[in-house]
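Hello forum,

I keep getting stuck at the same step: I have a sequence, I want structure tokens, and every attempt I make locally crashes halfway through. Rather than fight my setup again tonight, could one of you with a working pipeline run this one for me? It's a single chain of 118 residues.
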Amino acid sequence: MEKKEKNSVFYYKKTKAEKLYNQGNYEMAFRLYLELAGTEDPAVLFMVGNMYHYGQGTEVNFQQARVYYEMAIERKDLRARCYLALMYYKGEGVERDPLTAKRLLDANSEIDIHSLDD
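Reply #2:
Ran it on my machine without issues. Output:
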């Protein structure tokens, strides 16, 4: 499959997953997002982490949520950093650590938003 076709399929599936999520069909949305996670798209990785975090379409799994949030953070997803900070602040699947939570949030404020377009 050519790159253009792959991109079209990716965006079709991502849009479908977003629509399913917004309709409350979390199980189907989760399956699609999980299928798309191999593309390493930061928004997809964030959504998989978020759905594991809150048990939407799957069981709550804080360890998996953290893994996907960390992958999204590596790809510059600011939301993932906020949600991982929340996990540290509340001690969800990690030892409660408000200082790590603060460092994660502070790191967001230091990011040059223009660099996110790279």
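Residues 85 and 101 are 4 Å apart (CA to CA). If your local run keeps crashing, start a new thread with the error log.
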